Amino acid sequence: MNVSRYISQKIEGSDSGSFTSSVTKIAIISIALGLAVMLVSFAILEGFRNEIQAKIFSFGAHLTVSKYDNNNSLEVEPINGAELTRDLRRYPQIKSSQPFARKTAIIKTRDEVLGVVLKGIDEENGPSPMRQNLVTGKFLTFPDTAAAEQVLLSRKMADKLRLKVGDDALFYFIQNPPRVRKFVVAGIYQTGLDEFDEVYVIGDIRQVRELNTWADSLVGGYEVVLKDFRQLDPVSDNLYNSLRYDLKLDKITDQYAQLFDWLQLLNRNVIIFLVLIIFVATFNMVATIFIMILERTNMIGILKAIGATDNQIRRMFFFRGFNLTVKGMLWGNLVGLGFCAVQYFFHPIPLDPENYYMDRVPIFWDPRIILLLNAAVFTTSQLAVLIPTYLIARIKPVVAIKFD
Prior knowledge:
Helix 1 (3-14) packs across helix 11 (310-346) and helix 9 runs parallel beside helix 13. The protein has two domains: 3-56 and 260-402, no CATH class; 69-244, no CATH class. Strand 3 and strand 4 form a beta hairpin. It is elongated, with a radius of gyration of 32 Å. Helix content is 53%, strand content 19%. It is of the alpha+beta class. Belongs to the ABC-4 integral membrane protein family. LolC/E subfamily. This is ABC transporter permease. It comes from Hymenobacter oligotrophus. Residues 271-397 form the ABC3 transporter permease C-terminal domain.
């Protein structure tokens, strides 16, 4: 029988109603609240990151290949799509690539005028990620024989122009000679990101080709999606070195640097928050074990007098701290994961899309983060238990027995 564990269990049963009982409850609550807050914080942070990245990637993908242009114009010179597609297929890290072309235009209705960029896409290589942003209407239909006369407007544009699904809209293209096209609003999208919602209208890439008198093989560029976004830098370096001299490669983290810098700032804030919470929980555990030792000084002296070693007594308090940690972690997981589940399935906490880019607090489930947070709390709490137990070696049996 493990004597240290046995005595620890007896101490736990005799603590009821004592000052130590109140302190141990505070220790359990601090561990539970600390773990719960960390679980919720990381779930929300990862939710924000994934939601915003998904919205960005639906427009710009991870990498963009286009013709080199000193003017940095939204309208780029055409490139041969067939040649570039063959080059991209040599990279196993690339998941997919979609051609695009852009054309600036002015939308005119009876009462309003708005400058926009028509972004032409196709779905030859798979469904467009823009489908996930559609909020009303239907996505573009791509006929086999002619360019689609449909467009997708953002909700902001539709509100400004007072257009709805099924309405006609006149697009004026400033070129030589100027051209006018009438498009039907097939659907309305919303990302919550002003960088997209205030600028882009989505249409058929063949409309842009016709306006620019391009051949069917020409495109404005390719949007490349990687299998693993974390490999963005090494893949972009390798791809850049293999491209022709007249092509350029843009990373999504450079194109929308402000958004990614904001996500990095959130990361740093949460890490600081994590360190502070762990410190508070650790301090509470140290204080709790100190109080236990002080209240049991007389008992420690008696145990030493009958032959118990310092390590045996130290293990006794270690088991006590272990039990407190496990109880706190069980309650922390129950509260933290329970809150996340309620928000994930029922969305009781809304957000203002104008400020937060989404209409509710997002939750992302990552088993690795949950396990790491539990492991961090458990490890630091157990290390905190060891700190005050070294006080036991300084307790003298003769003095301790007289201690009251």
